[in-house]
Amino acid sequence: MQQSKRIKTNAAVVNDYCGYVPETNGQVEEVPMGKLLGKVNQTNFFENFVLRRKPLKIIEGPVNGVALDKFSSDSIVDYLGYDGKLQVERKHESGYGLGYEREKMSLEELLAKFNSGDLDYYLTTQYKDEEEEKVEEDEWEDEGEENSENGGIENDPDQDSSEEEEQEIKNVDFPDSDLDSIDLNNLQDDYVDSDEESYVSSKKISDLLQPPLTNLFKNQKHKSNSNPNFPLIPDILSFLIPQQINLWIGANGKKKNLLQAEGDAVPRYPDLMPGKPDFGLGRFVPQNGLSSGLHHDHSDNLYILLQGWKRFTLIAPSEAQSLRTVGEIYRIYKTGIIDYNHPGWSHVADDGSVIEKTTTDEEEAKKPIGNHTPPSFSQIPPVFLHLDEIDDDEMRENLTAIAQDRFPEILNLPKLEVWLSPGEMLYLPAGWFHEVTSYGFDPRGTTESTSSEVHIALNYWFAPPNGETIDKPYRDDYWKEDFEELLELI
What we know:
By secondary structure, the chain is of the alpha+beta class. The protein has helices spanning 39-50, 76-80, 107-115, 130-149, 159-170, 197-208, 362-366, 393-406, 408-412, 478-489, and strands spanning 14-15, 26-27, 30-32, 56-59, 86-90, 103-105, 121-123, 242-251, 290-291, 300-307, 309-315, 328-332, 338-341, 346-348, 354-357, 416-420, 425-428, 433-439, 454-462. The protein contains 10 helices and 19 strands.
């Protein structure tokens, strides 16, 4: 296990990022997936994009072992075979990720709601709360007691105290991370040997393959080149270490526009609220898209679009101090990882691993923070990224005036844009700010829209590389050893 490193608090932000930064607004470079396979192509991909921290759109996908037809809204329930309850968000202010309580339902129930016309739900990253963890542990302990009574091996009487001590050292909570794209709470630094091997194995697998993907691990040992099973590591990024794989599912149609009054033919202004920090705009974006809000993640991401359409608006990590983040930025690493001084936040290293807690005062860390939006989110409403799409001149002029007065930086920073259609992918290095607008239809009209209003995306999350070569992408074996332990469980 890594030694804990002590960080000294500095008044000035340390910005070590030296990766790719666009000079002007533009489009993300794109490459066919076939040109990223093979040793030479893999090396070029690593050196020109991964090492440079440069986003890349990958066309002619998806990756080997991920089939669009199996992940379609018509087939996904049967393919995944997961009937457990999932945590599902309700949309709020035209977006998601705002910290509101989630509802629990099965994947089949979620898709049934979409099919009935109820589009106000979104499946994102899954998180286990303390109550769920306790139920699972109790269930395992009950089974263990039964086995012991029937001649099983008795537990070590010293086991509980030693495990508690180890948990105190090992578990660092991220109170705000339940809105992040990857569940940081479930990324463990080490694997411990204990009599709870079965429970630990199951939990570790579900931490990597998040519900409802969890059952896909069962056939990993039986895959073949002619009939590949679901890949734990996509072949185009075989040199990186995966941390988590999750599934996002939402829906939205083109019938309703929040800027259009009931019965009106002409769009109108929303009810602007000057007294609110976001002027009451929330996550509104034009053309009835569903917005993620502008934020960054702490892992490299391979975003695979399986159904629907997505637009990403990207801003480099070097511009973080201009983006009004919820948290106070402490440091921007060379890899793009952004560290914070923030109640409840834990300092991280350049590869995303946890170093130490910022706040030693437990009571301070427990205080509620606004609407629980994590420190990595920008407080700038996403509509200001898309003012050119507002076709009402007066409305656009008014919103532009607000941006010039309150958020002038967002109008001048260089941005990249990328659209994804089904089967296309985006490699996004850690730390890149991005606002994702999701559509169940193609608002550009460039491709034929399906009758379904559902959009589905698969996310692979990787430890950000801090090494210099494809043969040694990480300076140490910190993440590699963790993943090898997990493979042994599978």
